[in-house]
Amino acid sequence: xxxxxxxILPLVVALHGTFGRGAVFDRLAxxxxxxxxxxxPDQRGHGRAARTPTYTRADFIADAVDFIRDLDEGPVILLGxxxxxxxxxxxxxxxxxxxxxxxxxxxxTTITAVLDVTDFPTEAPTRAALAAALIAKGIPDPTYFLxxxxxxxxxxxxxxxxxxxxxxxxxxxxGDWWPDWLTSRCxxxxxxxxxxxxxxxxEASRMAxxxxxxxxxxxxxxxxxxxxxxxAALAAAxxxFLDGLVCPVWTTEQGETELL
Length: 260
Prior knowledge:
Blueprint: E1 6-8, E2 11-15, H1 26-31, E3 37-39, H2 57-71, E4 76-81, H3 83-94, E5 99-105, E6 110-111, E7 123-124, H4 127-136, H5 143-146, E8 149-151, E9 157-159, H6 163-173, E10 175-176, H7 178-183, E11 188-193, H8 201-210, E12 214-219, H9 226-229, H10 231-243, E13 249-251, E14 257-259
Parallel strand pairs: 2-3, 2-4, 4-5, 5-11, 11-12
Antiparallel strand pairs: 1-13, 6-10, 7-9, 8-9, 13-14
Helix pairs in contact: 2-3
């Protein structure tokens, strides 16, 4: 008896933002299970990835290029949040052969400001104490930052990144990246949080208008971290975008592939 062919699910490579880690996309990966495969690496200086001497634009792009090429699965759907979004559309501009489509979460093309974290706390006896220390520094909701904190063998909670490195990462992201955004031609989904302080409605509209093949979706109740603020709506928007791409690929019983 012949088995029904199984689909080769679309591959989404997700790049997190500054202060983040790949695990911030765990909920999205779960919501897309059976619809797409999501791989979310820790980028240099973040999560469990190694700290490095430099954090240039070229460094981040080269790392992502190596990651995608090592997968050896052809062009991927490249998703990026904030810093990861810049990395994603710059990679697409320089290596269009590696990117089937772009999904950009709440980042624009002109980056002019950084969050000064030079004297932020590095550790605390408990997770709650670390959260309180961040709140005292003016971070009203430290949830995103705490996703990159973990207890050490002594039980002390520490961040998995260096605040000094994060300042360098932010400064390296400053610039006018409009040419990079406008260079690639693959399908793109631009996601904006309606309450985001980092991507204005005007800039998002301009990005979608001036770049061909770009769809803008706004999440009214989300701020900068759409994947945390409106996870179900985010997954629905991504699923709809995936449905609009090319026909699915199926694996036959003999291991061959064919398009429907």
